[in-house]
Amino acid sequence: MTFPSTPLLDDFNRANGNPGANWPDPGFANDYAQISSNRLAGSVNCAEAYWVNPFPANTEIYFDLFATANSDWFLSFRLTSAPTIANYPGGLNNGYQLHAVFDSAIPGNRELILTRNDTAGVIGSAFVSSLGSGSSIGVLAVGSSLKVYHKPSAGSWALIIDATNSIFLTGTFSYINQCTDTACAIDNWSGGAPVSGDDGGGGEGGGDPGGDPGAPPTPLNSAPLVRNTIITVQGTGAIGLRVSNTAYAFDVKNEADIGIQVETGGILRAHGAMTGSVTLVGTGAINPLYSDRSAWNTSTYPGRHAKDISDGVHIHHNPTAVGQTGKAPVSDGTKWVATDVATQTEIDAHQHIIENMVFGD
What we know:
This protein has 361 residues and is mainly beta. It has three domains: 8-192, Sandwich (Jelly Rolls); 218-311; 327-359. It is built from three helices and 26 strands. The chain has helices spanning 90-93, 307-311, 344-359; strands at 8-10, 31-32, 34-36, 39-41, 47-51, 59-66, 72-79, 96-102, 110-116, 122-128, 135-142, 145-151, 158-164, 173-179, 185-192, 218-219, 225-231, 239-243, 246-254, 258-262, 267-271, 274-275, 278-280, 285-288, 327-331, 336-340. The strands form five sheets. Strands 1, 3, 4, 6, 11, 12, 13 and 15 form an eight-stranded antiparallel sheet that branches. Strands 2-5-14-7-8-9-10 form a seven-stranded mixed sheet. β3 (34-36) and β4 form a beta hairpin. It is rod-shaped.
């Protein structure tokens, strides 16, 4: 599935003041988040609100973020009940939290930390240097898979945290809290049940799934078979297939900037997978299936069997036998070629000539 795949839910384009019925006040000792200049704004005392419409358990949430180096905010999701004072501590504590923390040791960076709300146990983290000023943040929760995406204001979506946790699988509520900075605000709140699609990430089918500019790669975990597909992903550094487990690719033409990226622990078994670039991360591996003659990245893999296809010149490992009666394969320094050899009659005649030269008649 491609991230994001769900529609806009709230653009906050309305009068300044209370955000409305879709964003109730949780009732804690913080400020109630307000609309300000068509955004849901923060405050120095921590401004909060929660989305009253439950998301499905398998869900994605994403939004635009406006913040400064001093902004502190967090998103809680998959909460098992509405995060209100009446449900405290259960509602707010039973779920996951994505928290932005300023790191003074790395100027210009903020650390995004994914935790469980009930224990604050860290599930995953990542440093982001361009968090704010119209960048976007997103989470994708499907089963025990928890992923965090980031998109710079003038860039493309990228996966920055890829983690698993199975403690909270059924929660449906979400909550936003923005602290310490009136400049902190969110816009274009979006989300819902992720939409599956054949973009080369997990289904069978043919045809061109089209190019989603800047879309992040789809991990091949749950349905690791791709065949008879053209994959086109536009954008600098765009990845067509990202493999983090064991996956199979048959007759796939990959037109992404980075055709295939195999991550640590991942293995791609391929046959006829045409790609211009293969990137291995850590212990990631790509192995051709038996009889594969696809055009591999010959700069990285010069010894692959099908280098002749990549070069456009088909080199036969043994010359064809048709029309070559009596010839033998002899190397010309590059390949085996059909070469004339002397018959026994010719050898006998040649030997007779030499004997005559030496001994005479």
